[in-house]
Amino acid sequence: MATETKLLKTAKSAQNKTPKLGKTETPKLAKSETKSLKSAETKKLTVSKTRAKKIKHSYPVKDAENTLLLRLKDGDVIIEMFADDAPNHVARIKELARAGFYNGLKFHRVIDGFMAQTGCPYGTGTGGTGKKLKAEFNRNPHKRGTVSMARSMLPDSADSQFFICFGDCDWLNGQYTVWGQVVSGMEYVDAIKKGDGPNGAVSNPDEIISLSVIADL
Q: What domain range is 95 assigned to?
């Protein structure tokens, strides 16, 4: 039976809407099932030449090859990737983005004050591409806007699912591979529909309109 890829901590404080530590509020990670998809099952969305030109000029990014444009229903989000700290993860994310893998995928697990998780082709947290990545844990902290890889209990089990932190999540540091940081449009990440189901499950969840490497626009 497929189970959802989860983070170590999911509890949040009712007072400040940030996760708090506590043994009773720390569910264990479950094994994630990864299932390979055929290329025909992925979606490819394009950006018009006019919009692409506007995007490039609107966001003075440091390195267009290692910067992503995440298009959400409320606006554009710019993510700078840490190619030096997590080279294999960054390379894989770019490969999947260029294949159109993430386009149309759901934010299936969203916990207010904690994080928004996506990247499952089935929208349930049970799937991936079938290619596991060796962990590249680094010293980048999990803070507001951090983009990090979801995984199971096994360190080298990350695949395609990732999450974006709404706030500081220090207890995740050194246990998940941080590969990027939101540098623009975090307010649009904040607007992602939150989950009201078990462990942050979202009914009628928001989707990724498209995820692109800015150098390709």
A: 74-216
Is residue 38 situated within a structural domain? no
State how far the Cα of 183 lies from the Cα of 171, in Å rounded to an integer. Answer: 22
The strand pairing partners of 118, in sequence order, are 162
Query: pLDDT for 145-180, tens place per residue?
Result: 999 999 999 999 999 999 999 999 999 999 999 999
Distant-in-sequence, close-in-space partners of 216: CB < 8 Å, separation ≥ 6: 98
Check: CB of residue 75 under 8 Å from CB of residue 18.
no
What distance in Å separates the CA atoms of residue 64 and residue 85, rounded to the nearest whole number?
Answer: 17
The total domain count for the chain is: 1
134 falls within a domain: yes
Task: Report the CATH number that the domain containing residue 124 is assigned in CATH.
Answer: 2.40.100.10
pTM for the whole thing?
0.80
The rounded distance, in Å, linking the Cα atoms of 151 and 69 is 23
Contacting residues for 23 by C-beta, under 8 A, at least 6 apart = none
Distance of alpha carbon 51 from the chain centroid = 24
Residue 99 vs residue 49, higher pLDDT: 99
